[in-house]
Every structure is written in structure tokens, then in C-alpha cells.
User: Which sequence fits this backbone?
């Protein structure tokens, strides 16, 4: 691979930006402008035939490694690394140690287990930067969601089990498969990595990444990169790769309604006196209009979606019961990706089992609201709180307490890194073109990455598919798609490395030696 000159105080990061690396803009469409250098498509490169052969060999090597990669994934998935309060934190530490050992065994010499005050351990593994090449940060997380009611699982949640073409178990998809994909890409290249690679495996993503901002601040130099690959999203469908280019943000709150000083006999006082639970239900019902549209005033709606799903597809993937109508308006993709949504995700009140003939004095609910790309979270939180206070019926006492929030995410996914990713996906999926998708869910830590590394190109990819049931019972990984993800990431690293050489031949930068080296092959 030809190196770019880094004389005159420049750096690999500067060199990559000179090739037209794009930045992330949160909350709106935008980009950092090109520096005017031309990137040739790889088929125009004089060594394209050699590159194609190298890519084919690379894909073959990934597939050869897959049994070992899967064994490592299953070993990680047997560790119940739940980081929520009330769960044994030693499992998260054990998961970090096992992750670190997998990368050491892959020949990565610089592997560290790091944490900040109050945080769970993360793993950082680094391979050095070849002269003039960009640095790629590969992100995943090794912590998992709690399993929930284990009786609802068809097989033990922490014993990976294959049924058909899927591997079942907590974390096999979200996101220990992301860790395994990064491992596969590095191992496939062996000692011939064409880019610098830093792997960052977080240990508290499922808990909301509470110390990630501090971690990035303390280890900024260690994690600095030109391209960031976030392997924590999903593909459009089995057989259809995708780049995630937008995600909704979220805000949540607790609302408490009080109507009485204490509970009283429902027969003696029911009728004139409203009970708190009925009152709370009436208040929560005002969050939607009769069509099911969110009725909170002042919220942003993003533009139309380029792709959509059928109602049949949505019903199948969501598990919506027969006869239940869809709510809201617009295409289904727009309703999931580009419009706000409100859900009541918890209520504190007496259980049916323990209910007595008593008017409830106070009741409390947790309300979660997803917000569209382009929405600022502070005004969204204020709009939700104001709505709940203003719509309380019958003069009852309402106390609303703001909770957590996470920024939405949107980018203009164009530029050399995105071109490389789409080409890698197309090859790994046998010619199927990837699509750009949004997600209705939120990945708040992306805002932290974008703030800390504003010039980096952010590629949000994933190993999941719509049937993976991440966070639910019987979480699963489609093994065929996992193999394609591993191939795609290995190809992506190769293509990012070659873009420097392609730009040199196009006049974007001068190779330091005046000669272009052959594209890297496979170790061994």
C-alpha cells in the first residue's frame, strides 16, 4: 500500500480529512465539506484486479476462521455480564477479562482493561497505524440486558443454543456478536492490517453509558480516530444489509397523581371522590389523539423516508395481535423513524392480586417519549412535562419529575468512508445493495462520540436483523448474516486502507516512496 506523505507537521488523521472524510452532525442533515481531493472508485484504480483477488482471499479467510470466532462468541455469551444495579458486577469484570484475552490471542499486543470512577470495565485493544493510513475505531459493548423471566426462554439465556440457522442466548446478538465481528476482521488481516485499528468494547452501554463521557474525555488520545464503526445496530432484513443514518432520541419522566390524603373505603366515598389510578389513566390517555397521533404540542417531525415496510411485515416483526389497529399516520417507516412516539412503560399501583375495595390515594407512572431527528431534547422534555401538568383533570395534584434523555442522530452518509462501507456490504451480500435506514430506538452515546471526535466519519452498522429480539426473550443471531457481517468488516478495513493509495494516484497526495505497494494480503 502506498503511504501518504506526513511531512510538514501533518498526521494520518489530517491525511484522511484531506481525502474528504466527513463529519457527523447531530439533529440535522449536514457534513464537513470536502478538501477538494478526488477519490477514485476502486474499479478505476490500476491495481483493481489485484485488489479484487485480495478481497476474495480475505473473505475466504474470514469464513475459515468462523468456527473459532463463534466459539469465542459463545464463551462470552455464557458470562451473565449484566451491569444494572442489583446484579453481580464481578460478571462484567469477568466478561471484560475474557474479551481482552480474545484480542490478545488474536495477536493484538496493546490490550488494556480500563474504567473511570463509578464505571464498569471497558476493553481497549490497539494495532499500530501504517504510515499515512487512517485510524479506525471499532466499537461494541460486552454488557447485556437482564434476561427477564427465564421461564419464558425456550433455552437457558446464558447457554448459547442453535436452533435452525439462529443462535439463541442473551447477548449473542446485542452486542457480543459485535465484539466477535471486530475480532474476525482483525484476525483475517493478521499482521497485514492496512489501517490503524482501535477496538473499544464498552461495559455499560445497556445501563445508558453513564460514565462514557468521562471515559472519552480521559482517554481521548487513546481513542482518537478518523472513522468510527459502531457495531450496535441492525440490518434491514435477512439478506439485506443496511447503514443506519438516523436514530430517534428520547426523554422520559415520572408523573405522580394524588387525589386523597390516604386511601379510603370505595363504597363509603366512591362517586364524589376521584381515585388516583382512574385519574392517572385519564391523564395518560391525553398523550395521544383519537387516531393515536402524539398529542404533545411543539414536537419536531423529520422528513419522509426513502424506504418502507408493509403492514404485514410490521405485524410479523412486532408480534402485533390480529385485529389490533396500527396507530398514527404516514408510512410505517416514518412513524418508527421520523416521528415522535409516547409510551407508558410502567405504573406503580396495587396489584390485582393485592387489590382491596379502596380508593387509591396516589398513583405513579413512567412515561417514555421518542423524539425525531432534528429535535432538541431539552425543549422536548419541557413539552412533555408541561403537557402532563396542563392536562391533569379535576384539579388533582400532579408532580412530574424529569428523567433521562438522549439526543437523536442524523448524518449525510456520503464520502469515502461510506462509499467503502457500501462496497464492502455489496460484496459480502453477493451483490445486494445496502439501504440507508433509520431506527426508532436510541443510541445516546453516539452524541458523545460525535462531540469528542467531530471530524470522524461515523458508520453505524450491526449484526442484528428484525427477528433478533434484542432485549427480549429468545434473543438470537442469524448465523448466515453474522458471517456476512464479519466478511463485510474485514473488507471495509481493506478498502479504507486502499483509498489512501487511490487518492495518491489521482493526485490527491504524494506517496512517500513514489511507488505504490501491492494491496495487503492475508497473513499466513
Assistant:
Amino acid at each position: 500500500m502506498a503511504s501518504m506523505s506526513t511531512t510538514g507537521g501533518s498526521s494520518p488523521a489530517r491525511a484522511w480529512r484531506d481525502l474528504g472524510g466527513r463529519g457527523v452532525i447531530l439533529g440535522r442533515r449536514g457534513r464537513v465539506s470536502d478538501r477538494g481531493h478526488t477519490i477514485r472508485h476502486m474499479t478505476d484504480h490500476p491495481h483493481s484486479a489485484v485488489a479484487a483477488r485480495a478481497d476474495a482471499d480475505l473473505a475466504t479467510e474470514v469464513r475459515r476462521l468462523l468456527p473459532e470466532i463463534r466459539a469465542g462468541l459463545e464463551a462470552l455469551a455464557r458470562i451473565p455480564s449484566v451491569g444494572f444495579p442489583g446484579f453481580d458486577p464481578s460478571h462484567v469484570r469477568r466478561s471484560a477479562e475474557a474479551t481482552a484475552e480474545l484480542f490478545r490471542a488474536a495477536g493484538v499486543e496493546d490490550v488494556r482493561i480500563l474504567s473511570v470512577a463509578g464505571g464498569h470495565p471497558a476493553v481497549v485493544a490497539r494495532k499500530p497505524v501504517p504510515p499515512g493510513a487512517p485510524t479506525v475505531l471499532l466499537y461494541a459493548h460486552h454488557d447485556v440486558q437482564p434476561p427477564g423471566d427465564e421461564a419464558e426462554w425456550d433455552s437457558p439465556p446464558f447457554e448459547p443454543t442453535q436452533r435452525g440457522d439462529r443462535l439463541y442466548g442473551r447477548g449473542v446478538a446485542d452486542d457480543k456478536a459485535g465484539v466477535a465481528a471486530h475480532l474476525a476482521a482483525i484476525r483475517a488481516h493478521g499482521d497485514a492490517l492496512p489501517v490503524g485499528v482501535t477496538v473499544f468494547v464498552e461495559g455499560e452501554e445497556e445501563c445508558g453509558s453513564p460514565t462514557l463521557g468521562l471515559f472519552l474525555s480521559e482517554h481521548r488520545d487513546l481513542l482518537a480516530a478518523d472513522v468510527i464503526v459502531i457495531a450496535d445496530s441492525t440490518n434491514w432484513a435477512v439478506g439485506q444489509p443496511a447503514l443506519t443514518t438516523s436514530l430517534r432520541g428520547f426523554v422520559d419522566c415520572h408523573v405522580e397523581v394524588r387525589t386523597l390524603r390516604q386511601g379510603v373505603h370505595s363504597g363509603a366515598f366512591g362517586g364524589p371522590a376521584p381515585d388516583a389510578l382512574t385519574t392517572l389513566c385519564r391523564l395518560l390517555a391525553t398523550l395521544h389523539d383519537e387516531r393515536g397521533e402524539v398529542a404533545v404540542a411543539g414536537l419536531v417531525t423529520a422528513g419522509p423516508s426513502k424506504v418502507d415496510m408493509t403492514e404485514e411485515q410490521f405485524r410479523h416483526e412486532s408480534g402485533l395481535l390480529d385485529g389490533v389497529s396500527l396507530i398514527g399516520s404516514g408510512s410505517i417507516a416514518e412513524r418508527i423513524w421520523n416521528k415522535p412516539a409516547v409510551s407508558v412503560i410502567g405504573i406503580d399501583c396495587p396489584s390485582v392480586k393485592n387489590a382491596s375495595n379502596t380508593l387509591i390515594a396516589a398513583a405513579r407512572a413512567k412515561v417514555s417519549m421518542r423524539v425525531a431527528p432534528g429535535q432538541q431534547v431539552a425543549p422536548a422534555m419541557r413539552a412533555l412535562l408541561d403537557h402532563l401538568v396542563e392536562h391533569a383533570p379535576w384539579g388533582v395534584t400532579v408532580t412530574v419529575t424529569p428523567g433521562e434523555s438522549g439526543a437523536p442522530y442524523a448524518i449525510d452518509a456520503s464520502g469515502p468512508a461510506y462509499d467503502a462501507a457500501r462496497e464492502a456490504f455489496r460484496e459480502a451480500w453477493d451483490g445486494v445493495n445496502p439501504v440507508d435506514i433509520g431506527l426508532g430506538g436510541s443510541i445516546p452515546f453516539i452524541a458523545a462520540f460525535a462531540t469528542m471526535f467531530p471530524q470522524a466519519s461515523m458508520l453505524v452498522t450491526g449484526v442484528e436483523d428484525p427477528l433478533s429480539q434484542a432485549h427480549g426473550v429468545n434473543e438470537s443471531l442469524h448465523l448466515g448474516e453474522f458471517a456476512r457481517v464479519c466478511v463485510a468488516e474485514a473488507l471495509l478495513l481493506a478498502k479504507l486502507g486502499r483509498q489512501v493509495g487511490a487518492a495518491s494516484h489521482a493526485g490527491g497526495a504524494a506517496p512517500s516512496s513514489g511507488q505504490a505497494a501491492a494491496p495487503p494480503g492475508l497473513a499466513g
Q: What stands out?
A: The longest strand covers residues 249-258. Residues 1-44, 503-524 have pLDDT under 50 and may be disordered. The two ends are 18 Å apart (CA to CA).
